[in-house]
Specification:
Strand content: 25-35%
Distance between the termini: 48 Å
Number of helices: 8
Largest sheet: 9 strands, mixed
Shape: globular
Number of domains: 1
Structural class: alpha+beta
Number of strands: 9
Length: 234
């Protein structure tokens, strides 16, 4: 019983701490994460895979608590190429959460990054919530120059995911995690109600927040063009 109470307190404090970060600060953190994992080609996301991706999701320092039975909660940023194969567009905020079972003691902070490989995967992510591995196919992504040697499972997955903990960057499966669009944080970022679908796929022009420009420049630096054209617009 005491252990269960401790778990609940840890998760509660973790969620409160995550929510204390503004969208602008989250964008800055996401930019730093992307720069740090891509600055060493042999250890980052393979450039050939990033060139094929239509979207990139970044969760800086996902809060992870596991004491026998654990849980995960993190807030992230999703950016898609305009029309699937154009320049990087405007960011949409989301949350990533899900329970886990294990034998870890204490908590740890982990950066999570995933790339979305096709239009179907991108459009599934703007639903109210989507369970990775069930509603959308997901696999641990290859690292560094291993992109060309990716397995059939990896190459047919809609999402390839990675984590970084204590400086180690590696592919990790996010199966079982639930991703939800965070419309309240989008409203803070854009100053008006904006859904993820409107931001990522809408026909109406969106004014890019100043705090998002550095992330856009960073993604452009590592993958200026690529993706796959969407077959239809929202």
């Amino acid at each position: 019983m005491k252990k269960l109470v401790l778990i609940c307190l840890c998760l509660t404090f973790g969620v409160v701490a995550a929510n204390a970060v503004t969208p602008s600060e989250q964008l800055r953190k996401a930019t730093n994460v992307m720069n740090e994992i891509m600055k060493t080609p042999d250890q980052g996301i393979p450039s050939d895979l990033l060139a094929k991706a239509v979207c990139v999701g970044i969760v800086p320092s996902e809060l992870k608590f596991a004491i026998g039975v654990g849980g995960n909660y993190g807030r992230g940023v999703l950016v898609c190429r305009r029309h699937g194969d154009g320049p990087w567009g405007d960011p949409s905020m989301f949350t990533l959460g899900g329970g886990s079972f294990g034998f870890q003691l204490g908590g740890q902070s982990t950066d999570v990054v995933f790339i979305v490989m096709n239009e179907d995967g991108a459009r599934k992510l703007v639903r109210d919530d989507v369970k990775l591995g069930a509603d959308i196919s997901a696999a641990a992504g290859p690292v560094g120059r291993a992109g060309q040697a990716a397995t059939d499972v990896e190459m047919h997955a809609e999402i390839l995911s990675y984590s970084r903990n204590r400086g180690l960057f590696a592919g990790v499966s996010l199966s079982g995690a639930v991703l939800k669009a965070d419309n309240s944080e989008n409203e803070k970022l854009y100053g008006r109600h904006m859904t993820a679908r409107q931001i990522l796929f809408g026909r109406t022009a969106v004014t890019t927040p100043a705090s998002a420009r550095e992330l856009d420049s960073t993604l452009t630096r590592y993958s200026p063009r690529g993706g796959r054209a969407f077959t239809h617009e929202a």
